[in-house]
Amino acid sequence: MKTRITKTLLDSWNYLFDCAEGQEDNAREEFLTTLKREQTPPNEAQQAGLDFEHLVMEIAEGRFRPEFVTDGTVNSVSGEVMGYDRYPKYYAGAKQIADIVRGGQWQVHVDTDVEVDGRTFWLHGFCDVIKAGVIYDVKFKTKSFNNLDLWHSYSHSSQHCAYLRCVPEAYEFVYLVSDGESLYTEAYDRRNSEPIENIIRNFMNWLKGEPELLQIYEERWVVDG
Q: Does the residue 52 lie in any domain?
């Protein structure tokens, strides 16, 4: 039997042990929702991230147009309508990222089979951008970087480990993190990324100690056909 596995599931599991103090119940609820493959609407922070990523993509692909603001006044000489271009709040930060990823492929589905202890897992997901051998992931923080400690904040994420395994021709994974103004980057290659096999093995060993959760995984994550 082949079962699917995703970075979202692995990261939600890892968050059980890495969440802030007092957030344990929320972390477990989020993990259970992911494990059960339940669809939930994005929360405020997630929606902000989706909106920011969409803005980056529009700029990178040359489809962005600022809003033209006018009160209808017409220039008496040229006959042109007077007004100004209004840019969205986080345009500056989005443009920084757009300039990096311009020309790349967006939302690329990637997948591969991974063998762990005699069992096959179908590892799959969507990369934000792939360009010239680099996988880029766009992140948005709703708080200013002045209030955040970002140094190596993604070192325990399974995302770069999973996607570097899915895309053998990629040599690097780069997180592009913005607060709408400043840009923080964090890069990983295979030398400083834990093999995804180790992460999957640890996850499965933990599930074996939670029989009810293991049963949910076996039932809801099986690959059809």
A: yes
